[in-house]
Amino acid sequence: MSDLDTFRTETRQWLEANCPPAMRTPPGEGEIVMSGSRMRFQSEDQRIWFERMRDKGWFAPDWPVEYGGGGLDGASTHVLETELSRLKCRPPQVNLGIWMIGPVLLEFGTPGQKQHFLPPTARGEMGWCQGFSEPNAGSDLASLKTAARIEGEEFVVTGSKIWTSGAQDADYMYALVRTATGGTKQQGISMVLIDMRAPGITVRPIDLISGKSHFCQVFFDDVRVPVTNLVGPLNEGWNVAKRLLQHERRAMSKFAELNMPGPNLVAVTQKFQGDAQGRIISPVLRDKVAALDMEAHVQRLTQQRIVEMAKARKDVFNVSATMKYQAAETEKKSMETMVAALGWQGLTWEDAGVAMDAREATKQWLASKALSIAGGSSEVQLNIIAKRVLGLPE
Amino acid sequence: MGILFDSDQELLADTAHGFFEEHAPVAALRKLRDTRDALGYQPEVWAQMVELGWTAIIFPEAHGGLAFGYKGLGAVMGQGGRTLAATPLFATVALGGGALMLGGSETQQAHWLPAIIAGEARFALALEEGLHHNPPGTALKAEAAGGGHVLTGEKHFVVDGSFADQLVVVARTSGTPGDVAGLTLFLVEAKASGITRSPVRMVDSRAAASIRFDGVRVGADAVIGKVGEGAALLDAVLDRARVCLAAEMLGSAEKLFETTVTYLKERVQFDVPIGSFQALQHRASQMFIALEMSRSAVLAALTAIDEGSPQLSLLASLAKAKMSDTLELVSNEAVQMHGGIGMTDELDVGLYLKRARVQQQLLGDASFHRARYAALRGY
Predict the structure, then answer these.
(1) Are B288 and A298 inside 8 Å of each other by CB?
(2) Taking the model in full, what pTM does it have?
(3) Would you call A301 and B300 a contact, using CB atoms and an 8 Å cutoff?
(4) What's the CATH number of domain A128-243, 2.60.120.260, 2.40.110.10, 1.20.200.10, 3.40.640.10?
(5) Do B261 and A390 touch (CB under 8 A)?
(6) ipTM field
């Protein structure tokens, strides 16, 4: 038996013995532990599962043990992830620090930064948020204006970040700030780590069209940050950020695991517009639902193709470039069709008399509008394909 | 098995690519059209395809086939689609050969599969009667008589029907039009007494025919499969052929898209290449996305045939519907983005547009397959 097989067997046994049965079910709304100093457990099982995984170093299985990680190599990490998903274990916690900034600090961080930030992050004691977007820098991120001027041993930060997920509870923010002007707008950007409890920081939660959200706007009013919190070279934060965004795909797939299966277009239309056999009565609606169902199907097949291509070491850039647009636009249209099929029931707000799935559909319809805005808008996706895949001229 | 082509299938696609570019370019179709060629295809090119073994790809080795699978046939069809190659491959191999391979008796297979492989018999499927694809709507009557059957009725838009040597005829042996039960497939010699064929000039410049059956007598050995139980067999034959057609359509759409993107880079207006306009860039990107999604559907459907997957019907309808929508988009945008020149017969774009609509209609258009997909999914 190879070492990897042994590891698999031991991991499987350990998970079966240590993951509480309640933690092998999909998390309900608000049941996800956002780790950090202000985290709260809603159940004893959550706490037990958190602590056991923490003590194994398996929040960050592939980080070195000296920084609080599990010290696993790539193959063993993959085995662990496979076994976790085989048992349907919930992620014990969620933290951008582990999936996004952590790997960047391992690569670019000073010894002092690694020692100071990585161990508490790996133990789930330090929660992170991301400060990239600004009110006037969305798709055009490089035009960001939040400024950090150097005074002695400190940066003094002034400006504002928006769409910061979880800013209220985070302990630290990794942020892109402008440390120089002149040159291209990508030059003069630096990445700094900001203590969210520092004086001068104000966090304002944002209500969305779908209701309460985890998004915030963060204001900086002469916030002092030690210069030792600079990540990578001064004025070259854009390259650090690009590196960080390469970790985003993995982070996104982690988040996707957390998404509860929402109201499903086919199921909802069958229930509200179907006959006793589940046949959608209106041929017009059926045609529309089938078209969208097919779009989701071809998207899954394309995902499968991308995985196969990657395994065969083929370049997947061109095909992958289609996925964000396809997924966002299909989901948006599906939600529109679902709400239309629900009629008036899809247009109530917190009305207890309306079926739960109809109420969820309403929220999800509104929330779906963000899919083609966040993480690279649909227009940006089309630009990328036009320029980088098709080679169309500037 | 993954859905990607393996290296052997890639190699076959490369060979086919070179072959069609050289021997059956779009100019060849144009010539067949302009000379009002009675046959509608180039016999010498067909002979070479037979020589290359492409008629043998899907058939079992026991009957002289290559047992190379539908992915292999799809690879060839896709390349043929790129140049709009007019050949008997689809009707003879995918439809006629498919019916015999899936439903033929040992005797029928032993006789006809080697004949197809050797290029000695060209087939057509006599199926459509109305304006749209509707197999259960079959009315052509087959009445039992003297141990065999007598066929009476009409078939329309029979692909390759004008020159086929053998016809696979979908007939009704019981029930009424609209019933799924009561259909039977017959193998009928195209020159049999009582058959009248009228060639129809289609918009894609290919050979089709209307065929009248006036009391055509066939023996008991003409039945393919079982009397009255032809619907399931027909479905299986059609699904395989639909996927092959979708593979061909993918090739057509790809080529047309490439041509259009090239034009966007070359055509200068307002002192810049029109491909620099974001309005056109975004539409080009949307076509690219639709093409990639369609490619996944086609590859998955071809794989499903070779794997004997129970998902085949679902994937066949998915591939045919998605590919039809994509080809409609790409062919319309190709004309629009080429502007005035796109309206001229001089450009090949128009030939692709006309062929596209025939490909879309053939064996069920996008709405037909969305309805079928919905039914298969239980809604």
Answers:
(1) no
(2) 0.90
(3) yes
(4) 2.40.110.10
(5) yes
(6) 0.96
